[in-house]
Design brief:
With 86 residues, the protein is mostly beta strands. It is built from one helix and four strands; from the N terminus they run H-E-E-E-E.
């Protein structure tokens, strides 16, 4: 899914981060394995080729500052318009 399509799905609802904000797992690749952190996403903003989420940490202690390769897995099951196009 393109970045534009993804962010439109979030901004197309009246309040996508309102009563039931989506959860996500931030998985940061470490030297020997990935470290996972559970987050609650609180807002979204996008500019040309990037997206930024506000978040609250639910589990774990993510590193402060910058870090190496990572993936963000978003749980979209509660959204009116699901993330998946399938």
């Amino acid at each position: 899914m393109s970045l534009g399509a993804f962010t439109r799905r979030w901004s197309g609802e009246p309040d996508p981060f309102g009563a039931d904000p989506p959860n996500a797992v931030l998985s940061i690749l470490g030297e020997d394995r990935a470290k996972d952190f559970v987050l609650e996403l609180t807002r979204i903003a996008s500019e040309s080729h990037s997206v930024t989420f506000g978040f609250r940490v639910l589990q774990g202690t993510p590193p402060k500052g910058s870090f190496g390769p990572a993936s963000l897995f978003v749980d979209c099951t509660g959204m009116i318009t699901p993330c998946s196009t399938n």
